[in-house]
Write a structure and sequence with these properties.
The chain is mainly beta. Helix content is 7%, strand content 53%.
Amino acid sequence: MKSFFSMLLVLAISNLYAQNSIEGTVTEADTNSELTYVNVYIPNLEKGTNTDDSGFFKINNLPTGRHTLVFSLLGYETKSIDVSTPLSSPLNIQLKPSAIEMESIIISTPFHKLQGDNVMKVEHKNIAQLKAKGAMTLADGITNIAGVESVTTGLGIGKPVIRGLSSNRVLVYTQGVRLENQQYGAEHGLGLSDSGIESVEVIKGPASLLYGSDALGGVLYINPEKFANINSASGDFGANYFSSTRGYNTNAGYKSSENNFKFLFRGSLTEHSDYNTKDYRVTNTRFREQDFKAGLGYQNQGFKTVLRYNVNNSKLGIPGELGEQTLNRTPLLPYQNLTNHVFSSKSTLFFGNSKLDVSLGYIYNDRKEFEDHHHHEDHHHHEDHDAHEDHAEHDLHDEHEAHEEHDELEAALHMKLKTFNYDLKYHFPKWGKFETIVGVQGMNQTNANYGEELLIPDATTNDIGVLATSHIHFNAIAFQFGARFDNRSVNIASGIEKNFNSFNGALGIKTDLTKNITARLNFATGFRAPNLSELASNGGHSGTNRYEIGNINLKSEQNFQTDLALEYRNEHVEIFANGFYNSINNYIFLSPTGNLIGDTPVYLYLQDDAELYGGEFGLHFHPHPIHWLHFESSFETVTGKLQNDSYLPLIPANSLSNTVRVEFENNWVKKGYAFIKLKTTFKQNNVSDFETKSSDYNLLSAGLGGTLSVFKKELELSISGNNLTDETYINHLSRLKSDGIFNMGRTINLGFVYKL
């Protein structure tokens, strides 16, 4: 009997670690002709290849079990299929021609479906697309997504806003782990560079089922750069120049992949001087950012792991009142010096038709803020602009001396935030139409102060959550539902301990009402435990212009949101309408007391019930037979109110975007494009008690680009211009609005990427 079980064990192990491969041919559905350079990708393995000249592909060294394959090629419908290894015969895949944009696999939701098959409405944008439209930073780029805006402090500091909610109500994921970098602060940016980022996904609405606390308003999911295809290597370098700031960014990277091992690395440097408006430069909006990313992957037949590391150092000026008009790039006081380290590992153990995903992360955020104790008495106005510009080059030689002077300063505010988080998900074997996942997520976080000032105390935070979710897919209808329980404990150095518990659930339905109309209806609850600043802050610091006092008796925010998304699609037209209603209990907000500490107004954290509602509506038209012509239009609106009928702060104004885009190819330009866009932002009259109204404005932008062959390698070129009419305007979400300082004027962006 013992030998019998030993034989079974040997057979099981040999089956688990058998050499599996997937191969097949990809052809065009209408003509049966072979398609070359089709991208074949397996998301859960982060492994892919391209078809050869005969349309053939093969991927070796695969674990036994079920895998999703995604086939994509520009000009064809993206196709996703599930297969089980070992295969009994080669695959024969047919792709249908289509002028509709290629679909992508959604990574931020656990079942990894194509956008069109996902029950939740998730927006997906490639970084290359956002940069082609002239985006200067990652925070700037995401504002091109309907329903997403950014609270800004100049150019270098931006915080995502999803349907009117921001700060700790929007969770950011990078490298597969939650990013923690003191995001409670209004003047604290993302701390991420767009270099080495493949795409961005946005979940609009409560995602606490998947991510726990802080996902009450939505999730910004940053997908890192993919590894090279099997048995290939590639490198590239590129740069961008921006006229308004006389700034630039440069980056270079290399990646290589074999059957078992793969690696990549990328470095970038960005520098900007103060941005220009029609009348003046905005003092101390200058910044410098250095970024390095690296990744290492390994896979055998039953296990795969990916290790990634990112270090980002930023020196960011904190603008206030207008002052000197120069092109210096060294920030003046006050400024921030931030270093953010992100270590992550993402591993999968395969057990035949089931698997275990294990994601681990460690984030070390070192935040220093240097204050200006001496206020400038003479303020230069826009009349002096031309004279100062004449002396700009003369001022540049002082930068090195300024760096040395700043380095001798001691940080007024210095905090180190260290976070370890984990995420384990077990995917059960598929049972008929059912796919089920159970998981455990958690976090351990410590905050420590080292500066002369104390805004928030030393503290330790621990999270743990358990979840279960299922997906049921029929031919014309799909369901997704789940439940989750979370506990958060906050231990403050003063001896106070706070505990927060929450139970949340979600239910979603996707169905095809007709051949061309798809409907999605989602109900979800979410929660957010008060952050350390809201509970125990007691101080002010540069950039806020207020003294904040926390409230240790705050309760968790709890919300319930209903989303309805309708989409009509045929060969030439896509129309969408997304509406939502979000009810939030115990909404936390800052309120002025009318008192002063020194010269600084005092603000307290209070709570009241709130509601937000609105949506996004739009169309994409590409007429027959001129599929190269695209017209895109979208409108977004959100309203936020407290129970007493007063309006919430930092709610984006309604806006309308219209874009005309053309795509072209010829003998010397590949993937060519040109666009012109007009974004109309309407008046914002629905303001909170300590906000002022904002005027309407129009921003015109345009650009063109394409890929050339230079020395038998691809050279991508682009030129774009934003605010081409040089309009003077103030965005309602600009933190410089209270000082009457304009947003950026006309800027021209020149860029290139050369692929080695």
